[in-house]
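can u do me a favor
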């Protein structure tokens, strides 16, 4: 895998597959976030695709969230805003994309990765796909991804994840609280279930799918502004001495 990570897509039988990857457990540096948002928007506008599968590379971690190397390198609020805006761009791209997005979560997901999973219209996972919002443990908070997670889980479960920032919650917890629609026993079973659903949707009325997408996301139109305001909050907090010490401590583990 490219040491800087990658985002790629393919289309077959009206099914678009977008794959992202990074050697550090599929973490999301700024360049990958920007490319992922651009790709989702581009593929969403393609007439030859009726549905999108969003997945990450490998068979272990789905997504490790923000890149610690980039977090610790942030030196001013402008750079902080730019970095955290990457997550806002991805979530808003998924929200405003005209196609239904099926998430394929094969393993653990943290922070921003939980936000990506929660922003899928229908998300399937394996029993190994625990979730954790670790932001508070490094001195910030799940401000940008929060609206996407809370939309799926409700306030009570979101509060639990946000405040208990060092605990992994298992895949069944994530299913019970709305992040996952289905939990499968293996990667093979996950692949089969994702492909089956994608095939069904690819052969459905694209106009009806688009209308359903709009209904699913009603009431989130203000996210174009809200998520960037949240990114500014995170970009300011990441500069604090508390947060920088917490990130360095986390990296040294």
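np, heres the sequence
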């Amino acid at each position: 895998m490219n040491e800087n990570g990658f985002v790629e897509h393919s289309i077959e039988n009206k099914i678009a597959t977008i794959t992202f990857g990074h050697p550090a457990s599929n973490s999301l540096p700024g360049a990958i976030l920007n490319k992922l948002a651009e790709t989702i928007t581009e593929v969403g506008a393609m007439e030859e695709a009726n549905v999108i599968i969003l997945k990450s590379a490998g068979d272990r971690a789905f997504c490790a969230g923000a890149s610690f190397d980039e977090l610790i390198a942030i030196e001013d609020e402008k750079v902080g805003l730019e970095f955290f805006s990457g997550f806002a761009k991805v979530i808003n791209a998924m929200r405003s994309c005209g196609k239904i997005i099926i998430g394929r979560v094969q393993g653990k997901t943290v922070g921003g990765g939980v936000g990506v999973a929660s922003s899928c219209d229908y998300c399937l996972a394996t029993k190994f796909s625990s979730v954790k919002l670790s932001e508070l443990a490094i001195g910030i908070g799940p401000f940008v991804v929060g609206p996407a997670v809370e939309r799926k889980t409700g306030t009570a479960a979101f509060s639990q994840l946000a405040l208990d920032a060092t605990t992994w919650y298992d895949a069944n917890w994530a299913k019970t609280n709305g992040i996952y629609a289905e939990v499968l026993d293996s990667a093979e079973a996950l692949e089969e279930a994702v492909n089956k659903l994608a095939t069904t949707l690819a052969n459905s009325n694209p106009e009806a799918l688009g209308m359903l997408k709009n209904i699913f996301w009603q009431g989130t139109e203000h996210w174009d502004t809200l998520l960037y305001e949240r990114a500014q909050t995170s970009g300011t907090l990441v500069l604090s001495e508390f947060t920088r010490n917490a990130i360095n401590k986390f990296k040294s583990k």
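Residues 139 and 243 are 4 Å apart (CA to CA). hope that helps!!
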